[in-house]
Amino acid sequence: MLRVAVPNKGSLSEAASAMLSEAGYRQRRDSRELVMVDPDNDIEFFFLRPRDIAVYVGQGTLDVGITGRDLLLDAQVEAEELLPLGFAASTFRFAGPVGDFSGVEQLEGKRLATSYDGLLRDYLAERGVKAKVVRLDGAVESSVRLGVADAIADVVETGNTLKAAGMEIFGEPILKSEAVLIRRTGEGGAANGTAKEIDVLIRRLQGVLVARQYVLMDYDIRKDLVEEAASLTPGLESPTVSPLRDSDWVAVRSMVPKKETNRIMDELYDLGARAILVSSIHACRI
């Protein structure tokens, strides 16, 4: 039975469970459940703190897990990213008092507060910057005002919290993170003979990602305009073209990016396409 770690709370939790549900896996109904078995898919889910998931997977206790890329790198364990999942996006950046810093080289000899000390130490070492890293579990933005640090490295979304604390972002992003599927590296990477089950999980999650990003578009078009219409809706490989009762017309079906749906519909209509219909994709395999 495949053993999968899922975030039990926070920004990763609901989105991860929703994605697994869309992929056809049973998920818990009570947030107090710590373990849930899905016998139909021969899989067992363990609901854990997001920060601990990389540790369990890296030690081979669990086969795969869903966590943040930042948490994976910060844990410094023998685990690797298998698949980016497209949610919980964030950026890890430096911030300091307004006007004090403009680049990472100015952090030499300074005190840096962060909740991601492993990730930050590696980043500084790669750039030859020697600074004192102060690990905090939360409220990192308060550390400068309280005299614990000279600057911070933290996850930034809107930046409003930093502005309220009298700080500003500086330098290039340290890391762009999102939710990822991970597994153990090296020996035991596919522990307990679960390589096939992991491949199935990956395909299902990829199917959800594609279904979220694309829609199915159908339309009728004159035969002599098919090539031009197909250039607007090329699909993933090639559109499906079917004959109609009127031999001068054909029906075309193709997958198109969801965010471009209305633009493509307008261009098809201007070209001469009619009966343009759009349908959601609930699941797929590519």
From TrEMBL:
The gene is hisG. Pathway: Amino-acid biosynthesis; L-histidine biosynthesis; L-histidine from 5-phospho-alpha-D-ribose 1-diphosphate: step 1/9. Keywords: Amino-acid biosynthesis, ATP-binding, Cytoplasm, Glycosyltransferase, Histidine biosynthesis, Magnesium, Metal-binding, Nucleotide-binding, Transferase. Catalyzes the condensation of ATP and 5-phosphoribose 1-diphosphate to form N'-(5'-phosphoribosyl)-ATP (PR-ATP). Has a crucial role in the pathway because the rate of histidine biosynthesis seems to be controlled primarily by regulation of HisG enzymatic activity. This is ATP phosphoribosyltransferase. One of its GO terms (cellular component) is cytoplasm. InterPro entries: ATP-PRT_HisG_long, ATP_PRibTrfase_cat, ATP_PRibTrfase_CS, ATP_PRibTrfase_HisG, HisG_C, N-reg_PII-like_a/b, N-reg_PII/ATP_PRibTrfase_C. It holds the Pfam family HisG. Gene3D superfamilies: 3.30.70.120, Periplasmic binding protein-like II. Feedback inhibited by histidine. Its cofactor is Mg(2+). It catalyses: 1-(5-phospho-beta-D-ribosyl)-ATP + diphosphate = 5-phospho-alpha-D-ribose 1-diphosphate + ATP. CDD domains: PBP2_HisGL1. Coiled coil: none annotated.
